[in-house]
Inverse folding.
């Protein structure tokens, strides 16, 4: 008599979630977050200006936009897993080029590769994987999956700083390339495009998905003007969450804080980000996007404000800013998924995530050079953080107004 097969005690969806964590460790953590540690050394050793350093981020953002515009087509043409493999390969090549060359054009080329890597092995593939594998606790799963960037921010800045100080800038980049290659191999061993490939159903926590009343009505999608306002809100959010984050290291170093102390500040931010993303994922599942936006958005505004007020070598305001940013920066990742689910439902989830990610990359591109330009003209990065405080406020007002408008329309 054939035995009835039992479901695994731990659903493979949580393995996918762990693989997503590793993907963000590489595609966002090493590619974007940790690059801030290199910036002061690039400025001093290669003679790049603040504007040139910001332009490297601009180039990465520009090519991430191109990558985001092509990622869905590539996933359909090949597979999501193959797309991640191509992104990982480009990330390794990017680090090797940074290590081997020292000219500005070569650094721009490496940044372009990093932009494609971010798109093909980063937020969009992770959002698609979480959406396909989880029908319950999607916010929590995405929160856990995106902690990889925070883990990288904990582990890597002190290591990279030590490697640069004791060996060389090139040696640090070679080390990063090796770590990326090993992590990517493990990722490709673990991920599968859909649960059906393993004969499984998506994770539902053993019960029908229960959600609190939200602003979404899948049968009455948000209108064109609301879409435009939402995409504008995400563009505004990209300023503080993208270039605002990327310039933290050089901002605090310019205030007179030693590079080693700033590296530890970034490590502390990484720790707070890990717990912040998990907490924000739980919060969006529990309260929904609208209510959680007040808490997460308030933390983001507070963090930007303290960054703009930090004008000395004291660590008090920077440490407080890092604490708030750890709870506020997840708005650019966890909250985007909640907005897609709340406002578009399951049917429009993947399209909404792709559009939001493209808008975010566009905003990062548009704002990327502004901190360096303002710093060259004013001698300080503080004006850039005042600007990002303003754009964050605009984002929150737009998103909340759309939630209220959509809820009013739904309940007529």
């Amino acid at each position: 008599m054939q035995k009835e097969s039992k479901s695994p005690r731990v659903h493979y969806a949580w393995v996918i979630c762990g693989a997503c964590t590793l993907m963000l460790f590489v595609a966002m953590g090493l590619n974007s977050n940790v690059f801030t540690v290199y910036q002061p050394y690039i400025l001093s050793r290669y003679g790049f200006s603040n504007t040139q350093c910001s332009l490297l981020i601009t180039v990465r953002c520009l090519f991430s936009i191109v990558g985001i515009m092509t990622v869905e087509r590539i996933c359909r043409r090949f597979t999501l897993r193959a797309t991640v493999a191509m992104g990982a390969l480009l990330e390794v090549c990017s680090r090797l080029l940074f290590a081997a060359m020292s000219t500005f054009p070569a650094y721009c080329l490496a940044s372009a590769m990093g932009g494609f890597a971010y798109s093909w092995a980063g937020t969009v593939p992770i959002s698609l994987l979480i959406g396909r594998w989880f029908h319950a606790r999607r916010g929590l799963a995405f929160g856990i999956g995106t902690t990889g960037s925070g883990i990288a921010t904990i582990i890597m800045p002190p290591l990279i700083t030590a490697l640069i100080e004791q060996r060389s800038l090139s040696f640090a980049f070679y080390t990063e390339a090796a770590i990326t290659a090993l992590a990517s191999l493990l990722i490709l061993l673990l991920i599968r495009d859909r649960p059906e490939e393993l004969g499984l159903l998506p994770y539902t926590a053993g019960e029908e998905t229960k959600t609190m009343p939200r602003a979404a009505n899948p049968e009455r999608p948000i209108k064109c003007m609301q879409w435009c306002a939402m995409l504008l809100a995400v563009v505004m959010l990209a300023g503080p969450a993208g270039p605002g984050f990327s310039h933290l290291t050089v901002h605090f170093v310019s205030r007179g804080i030693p590079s080693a102390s700033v590296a530890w500040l970034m490590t502390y931010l990484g720790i707070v980000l890990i717990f912040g993303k998990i907490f924000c994922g739980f919060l969006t599942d529990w309260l929904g996007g609208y209510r959680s936006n007040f808490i997460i958005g308030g933390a983001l505004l507070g963090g930007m404000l303290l960054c703009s007020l930090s004008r000395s070598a004291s660590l008090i305001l920077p440490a407080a800013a890092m604490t708030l940013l750890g709870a506020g920066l997840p708005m650019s990742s966890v909250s985007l998924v909640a907005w897609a689910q709340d406002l578009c439902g399951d049917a429009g989830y993947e399209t909404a995530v792709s559009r939001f990610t493209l808008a975010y990359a566009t905003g990062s591109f548009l704002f990327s050079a502004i901190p360096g330009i303002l710093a060259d003209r004013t001698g300080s990065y503080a004006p850039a953080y005042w600007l990002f405080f303003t754009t964050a406020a605009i984002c929150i007002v737009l998103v909340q107004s759309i939630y209220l408008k959509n809820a009013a329309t739904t309940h007529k």
About this structure: DSSP finds 18 helices and no strands in the chain. The domain at 12-205+214-410 is CATH 1.20.1250.20 (Growth Hormone; Chain: A;). Confidence is low (pLDDT under 50) at residues 1-7, 207-216. The CA atoms of residues 230 and 399 lie 6 Å apart.
